[in-house]
Amino acid sequence: MRPGEREFWRVTNTAADSVLDLQYVFDGVPQTLQLVAVDGVPLNSQDGTEPAAVTPVTHFTMPPASRVEFIVSPPPPRVRLAQLTTLRVNGGPYFYNLPQRPLATVQLLGGRREGTKEDRSDDHQIGRSTAKSTTQQRFAGLGTAQVAATHALYFDEIPLSQYFMGVEGQTERLFDPNAAPSIVVTQGTVEEWTVENRTPENHAFHIHQIHFLVKSQDNFEINGSKQAPAITGQYLDTVQVPFWDRNPNHPFPSVKLRLDFRGPDIGDFVFHCHVLSHEDAGMMAIVRVQPSSTDKGENGHH
């Protein structure tokens, strides 16, 4: 990096199973990450909110497949070691040991380039939306939209053997691509899903084709975990649900999600845990989006 010049970074967790908890540190002291977007969606820019605004955090949790974009400032010359690190992640007694470790080291190179804007750490705006009305914005009104149906989903497992993406009221089953869909919805509707973790290890809920609004992260602390920063009220396609501590008096950790099926996608697609070893062992299910009665046009399955 060059002195006085902020940079825009994109980070993707392409690991099969590892969860990252990003932190930017100068000589061991956490620095602020100015979050711009998560899972490809600018923060605070939807539902007619304009202009978008960055969200400052000192760490950010990334389950497998998560993407994050943020702005960072260069280290002052007096800093001896500047690094992007991942903090230790407690994934529960059945999850992988994920220690704190460095991901990248930052060095200062030369002086500021001519014509570059001076670093302004108080600049929280990231540009104005080009939409002229909320009806032209993706996800507009999702937080207050009428909910057509609710579903209770859960992660369950026989450790190191079988992994289930369950739906309350249905018999648990391993993923079968030829099976009937676990959930059927209608294009143009909005649904609210609660996803519980009933296992002693972390899982990452992911759905293809659409995004969801994170309404809440519940029962994390009582089970020994912390809520992920900066994602409640934002639009993601992957979210971590931490482990249950197996205390029968403690409720299961869960997330409440508002899912947007108002887009063009119809047909069958999947939702699953994005920890690859869990997904491959059966922790996946199918959702079918049927065309609305007013739109019976052709659209291929995904």
From TrEMBL:
<dbReference type="InterPro" id="IPR033138">
    <property type="entry name" value="Cu_oxidase_CS"/>
</dbReference>
<protein>
    <recommendedName>
        <fullName>Plastocyanin-like domain-containing protein</fullName>
    </recommendedName>
</protein>
<feature type="domain" description="Plastocyanin-like">
    <location>
        <begin position="172"/>
        <end position="292"/>
    </location>
</feature>
<dbReference type="InterPro" id="IPR011706">
    <property type="entry name" value="Cu-oxidase_C"/>
</dbReference>
<feature type="compositionally biased region" description="Polar residues">
    <location>
        <begin position="127"/>
        <end position="137"/>
    </location>
</feature>
<dbReference type="GO" id="GO:0005507">
    <property type="term" value="F:copper ion binding"/>
</dbReference>
<feature type="region of interest" description="Disordered">
    <location>
        <begin position="112"/>
        <end position="137"/>
    </location>
</feature>
<dbReference type="InterPro" id="IPR002355">
    <property type="entry name" value="Cu_oxidase_Cu_BS"/>
</dbReference>
<keyword id="KW-0479">Metal-binding</keyword>
<dbReference type="InterPro" id="IPR008972">
    <property type="entry name" value="Cupredoxin"/>
</dbReference>
<dbReference type="Pfam" id="PF07731">
    <property type="entry name" value="Cu-oxidase_2"/>
</dbReference>
<dbReference type="GO" id="GO:0016491">
    <property type="term" value="F:oxidoreductase activity"/>
</dbReference>
<dbReference type="GO" id="GO:0042597">
    <property type="term" value="C:periplasmic space"/>
</dbReference>
<feature type="compositionally biased region" description="Basic and acidic residues">
    <location>
        <begin position="112"/>
        <end position="126"/>
    </location>
</feature>
